[in-house]
Design a protein that fits this description.
This protein is of the alpha+beta class. The protein contains one helix and four strands, in the order βαβββ. This is VOC family protein.
Length: 82
């Protein structure tokens, strides 16, 4: 278990499959579960000062401000050279 430090920012990530995301973040990246709400498919995970909230889309209290279109998490190419 790693020491938990106060974060400057805690991003909340909507995920398609919480179990698969937890496998990645906790087993591969070595984050620890600070707390979770299994019935809402939500977990708050930490690794030192890095904190994340993971929330499965379609369950619980998702805060979605627009349509979710595939592929998720990618920026469209608007020719900005990014």
């Amino acid at each position: 278990m790693t020491a938990t430090l106060e974060p400057s920012l805690v991003p909340e990530l909507l995920v398609a499959d919480l179990d698969q995301s937890m496998e990645f973040w906790c087993n591969l990246c070595r984050f620890d579960v600070a707390y979770s709400r299994a019935e809402e498919r939500f977990a708050y995970i930490t690794l030192g000062a890095a904190h994340l909230m993971l929330e499965q889309t379609g369950v619980g209290r998702n805060w979605i401000t627009g349509p979710l279109e595939q592929p998720l998490g990618e920026f469209p190419d608007h020719g900005a050279g990014l």
